Each structure stands twice: as C-alpha cells, then as structure tokens.
Amino acid sequence: MMRFTFNNEELQYFSEFHKFWEAHHKEILNAGIDIKQAQLAAHALSNATRKYGREIFRVTSNKTSHEIMTTAKNKKQKPVASWLDYDFFTEERKAIKSLTVIVRTAGCQWRNCTICGYWQEAADVTQADILAQLEDSLKTSPDEEFILKIFTSGSFLDDREIASETRREIAKMVKRRKEIKKLIVETRAEYVNAEKIEDLKAVENLELAIGLETADDFIRSKYINKGFSFEDYRKAAKITRDYGATVKTYLLLKPPFISEKKAIEDVITSAELVSGYSSTISLNLCNVQKYTLLEDLWRRGYYPPPWLWSAVDAIKEIARQNVVVISDPVGAGHKRGPHNCGKCDQRIIEAIKKFNITQDLSVLEHLDEIDCECREVWHALIKYDDFLFCSQTFFKKKV
Questions:
Q1: How far is residue 231's CA from residue 189's CA, in Å, rounded to a whole number?
Q2: Which helix (H) or strand (E) holds 251?
Q3: 97-134 residue pLDDT tens
Q4: Could you tell me the sign of the dihedral formed by the alpha carbons of 267, 270, 272, 276, in that order?
Q5: Can you give the pTM of this predicted structure?
Q6: CB–CB of 101/148 below 8 Å?
Q7: Which residues contact 112 (CB under 8 A, 6 or more apart)?
C-alpha cells in the first residue's frame, strides 16, 4: 500500500476520493455511458443552475451547502449589473447622469438570434426578487436628476419576465423619485400594446427601446433570425408614439454574412427608414458573444467584427440625417469586439463616447487627423468591396 507525506505527516491516502479511486478505478475507467441517466443528470444540473446560479458549483471547504444556497438565494435579489454614467437627454438636448440596471429575470423567450447570448443571464426569480434588485440598485442612484435604464436581457413588456403588477409597481417607484427624469426599457416588438404601456402611465418620460437591428427584412430574418418583421416594428413604434412615449431604435452594424461596406450602407439606409419613428437611434457595434452561431463563425474565420472606422463613418452619416444617434462601443478594442489595429482604437472609442453625450459632429470629424496606417487598409477594403464581396450579401435574395 502506498503512503504519502503531507505537512510532515505520513498519510495512507490524500483524501476519501483517493481511497475510493484506488478501490474502484478499474470499473470507473471501463464504465459504459447510460444515455438516459446522462440526460437526466444534464436536465437536473440545468434546472439547478437556473434556480440557484453558478454559485452552487463553487464549493469550498469553508462553505456549507446551506451557506451556498443562501448565497444563491441572495443573488436573486441582486441585479446582474448596474452602473452610473452619462447619457444624452433628448427631450432637453443635454447630457445628464444615468443609472443602468441589468435586472435578472426569466430571460428572453425567443433565444434564437444568431448574434445574442444575453439569454444566458436568465434565472428562476420571483417578481418580489425583481423589485428587490431594483431597490438595491437605486441605493446608488445620483442625488441630482438622472435617466433610469432598466434592461432585462429580454423584454420588459413580456409578462413572463415582468408581470403587469410589477411594471405598475416599478412605475410608482420611478414617480416617487423626482430625480428620475426618464425611464428607458427594452422590449421586442411583439410585446408592445396599449395595455402594457398603460402599466407605466405614471412615468412622465417613457422610452421603449426596440432591437430592430436592420430595416431589411431579409437580413433580419435570414442572417440574424430576429423573429419579427419591419412591419411589426412599425406597428409597435406607432402604438408607443400614440400613447405619448418615445422610441429608441437599435440598429446593428455588421451582422453575419454581409461585407463591411454593405454593413455600413445597411445601417445608414435603415436609419433613414426608422428616423420618423425614433427619438433616438442606437447603433450597436456587433461583438462576438459566447455560445452563439456568430461565435462559431468567428472561430472558423468566417466573421471579422466591424472596424471602428466603419462605426465612425456610419455614425457621422446617420447624424447628418438630423437625428439623435448614440453608440455604446461594447467590447471595442478587443478581438471579439469592433476594433482597428490597436494603436488608434482608444482614441476612437473615447471620441464616440464623447459624441454620445454632446451630439457634436466635430468630435468625430477631428478623427480625420489621425495618421494611422490601418485607415488605409480599411479604405482599401471598402474601395474593393465589389471585387472582394461583390458588394452583396453572401446569399442572394429570392424575389
């Protein structure tokens, strides 16, 4: 029998597992796989993760199972994230503070978009947990006027995520806090109706943010797999505006399967088509999220994230349409996010952020002064797009 020394103490086994392994390793290594049992185990682990979060897998010798479950339970009453920043207050054409809260909910029901992995933040929470998350985040809210943004990684108007009664309670919370000048929530188009907006009637300045991504139905349907049409968006925007609320429209720069030049042209054209419905256009620069089709394409070398030069070009053209346009460069400067060569990235990122809160086009125009060789590479890519990509989507539309 083998013996081991640990901390000057002679031991026969390192652990109970070591003892078990010595006795049973042959049958373990030669074990067959019971598919049904494996499926049951996978299902149980999936449900446990959704209910208690990943904390249940972080077992240490210093934590009891009761402590772990308590931590997981408390986690349900904490948001995924929250932070303070500045946003452009469109109604008064000025920058004010903002509080963004990513609320932990059951998550997006659709879960089929090729570019989105936010549904992985879903959890088995109660409506009381959701209100507790918001109350927790508001403890750090500014003393002066600010914009409150409540995002769920899904749809605020989906009753499965946020119940009608909860929406009404949130509206009351917002009304009680006089410092909150505006409430922005996200939703898919299909959940927008007068009854659900009525839940938020106590909010003075309400804005619904809708992820249209593109006005091109073919790109949205085939390449993004969004699950609703431009007409669905148009109807939702009309209902929202008729009720006295405003619409923020999300457009996506460079979904999969289209070239850099086509991506720029698509968001500019889309902005023209949605500007009549939108108080703000938010240009989202595509980034590669985990466990998505886009990630698989990226790993295989079939998808490069957009250039930051493309983002600057698109923002400037949209801004010239006399519409408020903002862009949060998530993941910018990293390999999974929008980037250039790495040398000029940070200056461009800071310029975009400054433009967001000033809407001063000269901030972006000053970037023409940057003398970086990667800009010539980008220019060549755009110039020879016809040769490289035929300036078309990779799959032709059916007429």
A1: 10
A2: strand 246-253
A3: 999 999 999 999 999 999 999 988 889 999 999 999 99
A4: negative
A5: 0.81
A6: yes
A7: 225, 227
